[in-house]
Amino acid sequence: MSWLTAEQALHLLGTKSQTLYANVSRGRIRAKPDPADTRRSLYFADDVKRLATRHAGRRKTEAVAAEAIQWGDPVLPSALSTVSSGRLFYRGRDATALAESATLEEIALLLWDMKRPLRLEEGQRTPPSLNAAFSALAERATSDLPSLGRSLPALQREAESVFSTVAEALAPGASGLPLHQRLAVAWDRPDAADLIRRCFVLLADHELNASTFTARITASAGATLSAATLSGLSTLTGPLHGGAWQSVRSLIARAAAIGAEEAVRSYLSEGRPLPAFGHPLYPDVDARAEALLHCFTLPPLFARVRDVGEQLVGERVNVDFALTAMVHAYHLPQDAPLIIFALARTVGWLAHAMEQATSGRLIRPRARYVGPPVQ
User: What is the pTM (predicted TM-score) of this model?
Assistant: First the structure.
């Protein structure tokens, strides 16, 4: 849940209402009017949880750690990307500004800190295939060299090779073309090339999201970069991550059957969160979604669902909604959202895997046992 009522916020903070209001006035906790009752306010959950953790004081270490790992403060240092004041940055540069002209290959150079152009191999003229990406990575995972103990330049060369392997599967075509054009040609939708490019840039990395954290854990054990990428790709397919587009399609299908407002109300009346509305890191608007939605006309049904949903939920649509709408607007294949997401995020997974591998540290959390008493 992105926003909390005053009662919920006070419960987490363990303070009086005056302290809550003081934190709002000092800019420590963001607030907005409650759409259901403008006399009341809602408080941004991330800010409240972060402040509660910071002032944990006498709370047990394991309780604080358990809460922090769920949308809590970052648990790993990284120089790659961050979300600050509602904007996404890659190594200090605004991702939405980069999306105006940069290619995915250029973002790879930025995130990987490489000083020469990428050299990607030419893929066979076959349809883009996630199955092919999984198979190719699995084959490499046990034959490539472990990442442990290798220099950054050596890892960069391997990352280039792994990225090429994924690109061959997901964007096959002539090596002389940038990846967004290769994918547009493979789908026979050249008019979608620039939107695909923008999606690539905006989805390349996003702090310690679930798939990136998985990739870092794999790399921390010294596994191959291909294994780390395979870990990330496997996690991405989950419906709460890169597979969120399927929930958006289901919402749109329901709206087509019974109308936009009835579809949204039916979700809410069933106690189901509306898919692709709001994001914990963007209390006002997902900057990535905003950057994409300015570049094409929303299909009418998507526009109606967005308008009704934003009014009833009080949250703006996020990048999953924008990506799914773009795919629909340009008549791309049904699995296009996941293919675009996977190819883009491969750049981030490899960047994080290299950063983790060169740190030489194993990621090894402890579990808090809650099972039957130990005999």
Answer: 0.83
